[in-house]
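quick one before i forget lol
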Amino acid sequence: MDKIKVLITGPVNGSFTDLSAKLTSLQKSKAGPFDICFCVGPFFSDTNSTSGTSDADGNGNGNVKSNADSRSSSIQKELEGIPLPLYFCDVGSLPSGYTLPGVDFGAEKAKDDAEISLDDDDNNDDDNDNENDNNDDEGVPKRSKGIIRVAPNVHYLHGISASASSSATTTQTADIVNIYPDDMSNDKTYLTVAFVPPNARMHSLQSAILESKTNHASYVGCDLLLTSDWGQGMASSACIAKDDLVKLGNDNSNSNSNSNKMNEVGSYDVAEMASRCRPRYHVTPSILLGQGQGPIPEKESFFIQSLQYTNPPSAMASGVMKNYHTSRFLSLCPVVDAKTQKKNGKTKKYIHALGIQPLWSMDRITATKIPENTVVVPCPYTDEHYEKDGNRNGSGNFASGTVASGMNMNTNMNMNSSS
């Protein structure tokens, strides 16, 4: 089958005009057109708040409502300018007067074979294009629940409540869904996408649905995992290539400062969810690095692309070990205007392109095949890695020799979306 051409971006932070301009340009470029876009990190920003506006009487709130209403209308028009289907899961800070429809918020690395070059200097490589020989899901719903349309092409990955309580119906939940890039025109072409709300905790109502799906007997993995935090253990792992270690301040030249702190970077809960989900691509916002120490004089964000890492095998009922595909970690910078991006260069990249053949459409031999001369490193979220780096100060517990405790490594499914 044809590969799905995917764009992923870092935090938008309300820069919808800049994002729309970039997406429109890419749709007309040699690399385009693309089928779908995913954004990680805060999507909205309240930086345009008018709370300081004064009225004629000096009360400080004269034009607040009218300005907020105007900004709300402007935001909606900007969102309507997004030229392709776009999905986000981290709302961020909603501007004053703007609400999302349907939601009451109340109170040295190897080149990725799937990467699509966005300039003329790189090669345009895609995933291995192999047809599936036996995975033919029947009765897959055309649209998953828990996805809210905010604008014609903009969708909020909200998830569905794991509780029957009406008070929990507006709580965003972690979930795994099937997303159809061409808006249902082809009910057999979809990506399996996992998403985790900011600050979600394992073994809570927020993560219950995701945990249940990853425990399903046929679960294999997903194409994308979208989170707002790094998984704890990634920054200090062998997954980070040498040039990126310098950005992190975790190279040998700085072994007694930032490098000692890298094993504390990220969320233990996200690490456990990442190990459960087995994403082909785990995408997060970049983190601010540097505190006047080592090679980084000020706090900055950088684009990070990890080496491929393994997902630990599991034992089937027959006792035979079942192997899985490899994963890759991507961390993207915030969206900026074209002039700033040109100045920043690729080290602060905010948009990345992939050509993905969906995991569900691949036979296991194809999915687990590792191309020649590709460096693959161990999973950064195993018990062995955490013991090595002393990463046991999180909320989860890791089982000896595998990944997070509480997860059944004998259960793996080919994901169907929520009905």
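fyi The first helix runs from residue 16 to 27.
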